[in-house]
């Protein structure tokens, strides 16, 4: 059964972003969901930004590269999902270790 839902307008989620006061993320970052401490969020976003700036990004290995870097910085068991379109997710995580954000054309 197909639902045939109309596409969401491009600004639909603008009202859904979290305020970023207290964070030093840059104007190009939109927080979607977060329960991490600001300094940790800044490190995660900084890692994603650094990976994106390295070279032409291979989207297939982008999540792996970020996961490896986060595992090294914070310990193992990071789950990294990267999308360049709409997504919906429902998942379990350790309290204090979840951030969902938009950077450039990607959602992490």
TrEMBL record:
InterPro entries: DLC_sf, Dynein_light_chain_typ-1/2
CC annotations in GO: dynein complex
SMART domains tied to this protein: Dynein_light
A GO biological process held by the record: microtubule-based process
SUPFAM superfamilies for this protein: DLC
Protein name: Dynein light chain
Origin species: Macrostomum lignano
């Amino acid at each position: 059964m197909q639902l045939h839902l109309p596409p969401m307008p491009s600004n639909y989620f603008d009202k859904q972003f979290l305020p970023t006061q207290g964070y030093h993320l840059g104007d190009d970052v939109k927080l979607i969901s977060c329960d991490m401490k600001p300094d940790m969020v800044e490190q995660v976003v900084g890692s994603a930004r650094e990976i994106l700036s390295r070279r032409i990004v291979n989207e297939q290995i982008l999540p792996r590269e970020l996961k490896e870097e986060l595992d090294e910085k914070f310990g193992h068991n990071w789950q990294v999902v990267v999308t360049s379109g709409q997504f919906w997710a429902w998942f379990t995580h350790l309290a204090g270790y979840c951030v969902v954000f938009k950077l450039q054309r990607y959602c992490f």
